[in-house]
UniProtKB/TrEMBL annotation:
InterPro entries: Sig_transdc_resp-reg_C-effctor (IPR016032), Tscrpt_reg_LuxR_C (IPR000792), WalR-like (IPR039420). The keyword Hydrolase does not apply. It comes from Labedaea rhizosphaerae. Gene3D superfamilies: 3.40.50.2300. The keyword Transcription regulation applies. Keywords: DNA-binding, Transcription, Transcription regulation. GO terms for molecular function: DNA binding. This is DNA-binding NarL/FixJ family response regulator. Residues 141-206 form the HTH luxR-type domain. One of its GO terms (biological process) is regulation of DNA-templated transcription. Pfam families: GerE.
Amino acid sequence: MLERIPVQVRGLDPISEAGVVTQLKSRPELSVITGTDERTPSVAVVVVDSITPSALDLIRALRARGSERVIAVLSSADDSSLLSAVEAGVCGVVSRAEATPERLTNAIEHAAAMEGVLSPRLLGRLLNQVSRLQNHVLAPRGWRLTGISDREATVLRLIAQGKEIKEIAAELSYSERTIKNTLHDVVTRFHLRNRTHAVAFALQEGLI
């Protein structure tokens, strides 16, 4: 027997929310959770006109209540709002004009499988925004989207090669204190145990 994916639908507009609920209730792949159902859905669908502060609050609230994956159904979205939605915890975006029952069900299935959902048009806009963020905000300050700076990445890479603090300081023309402080910043920021853990974490996450 097909195991249904538990999903809930929430919207700022009750009429829009009810419309999507009606669309999804007939799908055999899904089990739509109502307000009286105490189950925690693995996927939530947020129906909003655009990514406003109220929409972001709704997305964060659903995540806080246990919905691991959130899909946003939007009437419109600009580059900045797409990035804000991703930061709030959205794993997929579907245009309301494309939100047929089949398309929504497919998006929910992808979300439940821990995959992202985004149309090619929206993906291009999101990547453009990410590129601008990297080039105009992070790069001028020596930072990357990975969360570590160029200096931190270089120090971790040299530590991974087995070099001592003194050797790294000499090679990079920094003081030993600067190198130690750099390592301490990484360990603290990512809640790591020590420099060995920091190197292992950076390698595992592809940061260096």
